[in-house]
């Protein structure tokens, strides 16, 4: 796991926690580690001040106590929002949105496999009908995951009608979860948001939408967030999926994404393979972060 969590601070913190006592150097090292991890000056200051107060309150000089307190403080911040997926409706309908290139198609395949591993039946609706290649790509991933697939019947079919047929297919075949792919072309933002609104309206005539997952490339930092703003404003996003956490992503950004958008992270992608997607569990994330 260690080599696949480049955002981990455990290397930077190891020396600090191995020392005999907490001293000024400890605080300096902690500050440097958090700033290097992209937590930003303000959050770093808050965390350090909080820990200094705790260390004083418990009257300890043991770096092991500081390690535990750091874990608690971070876990508290990372778990402010509820990161559990809400998939209790039958069928549970999950719309997946995001800008092209962030890893949306791969995420849908991995998510279908993730659910299949829990013995949940899945149908994937290829409602990004604008690009024929997108339909084929998502179909390949769905097949690999052992999921059903609903494709457009003709090129350029209205995405909302593919979404409609996907939900119908799920109902008819008693499939538990319908994952619907959507377009991610950014050039025609207005058109895309109208398209997403229509998909939603059409689906909601049949059944409620359980989750709208926005896929974000964690290595793009602030830029990725700016690009995603339109989705957050218009698409009723209920959860975030952070992809490419095996890349150059920083843990501080992961926290910032949640705190800035007010939307919980629900899934994280850490590789290109079909099994490289997990739920976001703050406890596990912080464990990997601190070591
Ligand atoms: P889409 O245009 O948003 O549908 O993006 P794709 O799913 O086609 O992914 C774009 C690229 O990102 C592909 O090369 C994927 O293999 C890669 N990718 C997706 N998720 C991850 C991830 O979690 N880690 C890494 N390293 N690469 C990823």
TrEMBL record:
<feature type="domain" description="SRP54-type proteins GTP-binding">
    <location>
        <begin position="91"/>
        <end position="291"/>
    </location>
</feature>
<dbReference type="Pfam" id="PF02881">
    <property type="entry name" value="SRP54_N"/>
</dbReference>
<feature type="domain" description="AAA+ ATPase">
    <location>
        <begin position="90"/>
        <end position="267"/>
    </location>
</feature>
<keyword id="KW-0547">Nucleotide-binding</keyword>
<comment type="similarity">
    <text>Belongs to the GTP-binding SRP family. FtsY subfamily.</text>
</comment>
<dbReference type="GO" id="GO:0005047">
    <property type="term" value="F:signal recognition particle binding"/>
</dbReference>
<dbReference type="InterPro" id="IPR004390">
    <property type="entry name" value="SR_rcpt_FtsY"/>
</dbReference>
<keyword id="KW-0472">Membrane</keyword>
<dbReference type="InterPro" id="IPR000897">
    <property type="entry name" value="SRP54_GTPase_dom"/>
</dbReference>
<dbReference type="InterPro" id="IPR003593">
    <property type="entry name" value="AAA+_ATPase"/>
</dbReference>
<dbReference type="GO" id="GO:0006614">
    <property type="term" value="P:SRP-dependent cotranslational protein targeting to membrane"/>
</dbReference>
<dbReference type="GO" id="GO:0005525">
    <property type="term" value="F:GTP binding"/>
</dbReference>
<comment type="subunit">
    <text>Part of the signal recognition particle protein translocation system, which is composed of SRP and FtsY.</text>
</comment>
<feature type="domain" description="Signal recognition particle SRP54 helical bundle">
    <location>
        <begin position="1"/>
        <end position="78"/>
    </location>
</feature>
<feature type="binding site">
    <location>
        <begin position="181"/>
        <end position="185"/>
    </location>
    <ligand>
        <name>GTP</name>
    </ligand>
</feature>
<keyword id="KW-0675">Receptor</keyword>
<dbReference type="GO" id="GO:0005737">
    <property type="term" value="C:cytoplasm"/>
</dbReference>
<feature type="binding site">
    <location>
        <begin position="243"/>
        <end position="246"/>
    </location>
    <ligand>
        <name>GTP</name>
    </ligand>
</feature>
<protein>
    <recommendedName>
        <fullName>Signal recognition particle receptor FtsY</fullName>
        <ecNumber>3.6.5.4</ecNumber>
    </recommendedName>
</protein>
<dbReference type="GO" id="GO:0005886">
    <property type="term" value="C:plasma membrane"/>
</dbReference>
<dbReference type="InterPro" id="IPR036225">
    <property type="entry name" value="SRP/SRP_N"/>
</dbReference>
<dbReference type="InterPro" id="IPR013822">
    <property type="entry name" value="Signal_recog_particl_SRP54_hlx"/>
</dbReference>
<keyword id="KW-0378">Hydrolase</keyword>
<dbReference type="InterPro" id="IPR042101">
    <property type="entry name" value="SRP54_N_sf"/>
</dbReference>
<keyword id="KW-1003">Cell membrane</keyword>
<feature type="binding site">
    <location>
        <begin position="98"/>
        <end position="105"/>
    </location>
    <ligand>
        <name>GTP</name>
    </ligand>
</feature>
<keyword id="KW-0342">GTP-binding</keyword>
<dbReference type="InterPro" id="IPR027417">
    <property type="entry name" value="P-loop_NTPase"/>
</dbReference>
<dbReference type="Pfam" id="PF00448">
    <property type="entry name" value="SRP54"/>
</dbReference>
<keyword id="KW-0963">Cytoplasm</keyword>
<comment type="function">
    <text>Involved in targeting and insertion of nascent membrane proteins into the cytoplasmic membrane. Acts as a receptor for the complex formed by the signal recognition particle (SRP) and the ribosome-nascent chain (RNC).</text>
</comment>
<dbReference type="GO" id="GO:0003924">
    <property type="term" value="F:GTPase activity"/>
</dbReference>
